[in-house]
Amino acid sequence: MTPAGFITIDLYHCSGNATGVNIASSRPDTIAQVLTGKTPEQVLDTVPLLFSLCGNAQAYAALQACRVALGMTAEPELDSARDMLVQLETLREHAWRILLDWPVFIGLAQHKKSLAELLKFDGLFKRNLFRHGEAFKFDSCLDIDVAQLLKLIDDLETLIDVSIFNGRLAAFRLLNDEAQLKDWLTQNNALAANMLKHLYHLNWIAIGQNDIACLPGLDGDTLDRQLRQDLAAFSRMPQWQGRCFEATLLNRQLSQPLIAALQGCYGNGLIVRMLARLLEVALIPSRLRQLLTQTKLPEMNTASDGIGLAQVQAARGLLIHRLELRQGRVCDYCIVAPTEWNFHPEGVVVQGLKQLQAGNPNDLQRQAELLINAVDPCVQYALHLRPQP
């Protein structure tokens, strides 16, 4: 079950050049209905059943919010292990787009076998990190097999190296600017390289570039005050300090030299977004090794009066959970997913689509699909091209 709804995008055009965008979401208000009246323990049992996408991130955010609301102490060692599962899930979600969607865009066969192999890692990591594989419970206990986990990370890295980078993952990690990127693309038949070369060939590398900025870090107390003021409005169409922001994986890669260099030329255009996805995939194995050898304090926000607020970086961007407890049971629960920021009626997808100038409806459709895929909604969507009346 995924109480996520559906997004409808109407892209108006004149002879294939965008003239306007209308976006509407039918996200149902089911979360509060489903979780109201439940105990925190029941919340942790229920949340993983509600989400087919980013289930680890959703479960982790729910656990953090419940712990804060109950005034429980931090669990740095367990949270490092949980963060490993969220990182693994992030890699899987990105690989889903790269291995299944990117080949379709450039007329190649989907890499279904590689994705199927990748899907097996979640259960393997859980069993080698937590007793009985239970990671997101109040009584979760670590049961770490370091040697087996290091082997799993090595196997994971080899899989993405072969299936996405054609053995040139290490070289990709070292890229610092566009000249080095173009050298890497030369005579490179990796799936990632073929996708990027396709964009260069069509001169679509900067499409969708717009002025919507990446969401800054949100102070927990300020965020909670804003949520208290108008919870329903924020959860449906969030803004921060009166402005729309994007909350995508690009936010996490802004400091990478390659992204910084390409942003100087193409802003938040299509190639920058695709490179950010590839960089995150390339860097996650190293991040997993790091988390295995260190503890990390969780990013939890203090609260009072039975209120718990949690922020977790999920695959598609910032995920926020907020709950209120009264007499030990949930009286209100709110989730703000990255899609609410990114597919806001005035947000980054709308502004990006408005910039498209394809010259014919077929190319406009292809450009729009590429841009939407790069931002990546966590719900199903329908894109309709509408001739400008």
Largest β-sheet summary: 4 strands, antiparallel
Helix content: 40-55%
Q: How many beta-strand runs?
A: 7
Uncertain residue ranges: 295-300
Which strand order spans the largest sheet, edge to edge or round the barrel?
Answer: 3-4-5-6
Share of residues in strands? 5-15%
- Briefly note the structural class of the backbone: alpha+beta
Distance between the termini: 39 Å
Q: Which structural traits does this protein have?
A:
7 strands; 18 helices; globular; alpha+beta; three-stranded mixed β-sheet; 389 residues; four-stranded antiparallel β-sheet
Please provide a written account of the structure.
Helices cover 52% and strands 14% of the residues. With 389 residues, the protein is of the alpha+beta class. A hairpin with a 2-residue loop joins β5 (317-326) and β6. α4 packs antiparallel against α6 (121-129) and α14 (257-266) packs antiparallel against α15 (270-293).
Describe the secondary structure blueprint for this structure:
Layout: E1 6-14, E2 17-25, H1 31-35, H2 40-50, H3 55-69, H4 76-105, H5 112-119, H6 121-129, H7 146-165, H8 169-173, H9 178-185, H10 191-202, H11 220-229, H12 231-236, H13 250-253, H14 257-266, H15 270-293, E3 300-301, E4 307-314, E5 317-326, E6 329-336, H16 338-342, H17 348-354, H18 361-375, E7 380-387
Parallel strand pairs: 1-7
Antiparallel strand pairs: 1-2, 3-4, 4-5, 5-6
Helix pairs in contact: 2-3, 3-4, 4-5, 4-6, 4-15, 6-7, 7-15, 14-15, 15-18
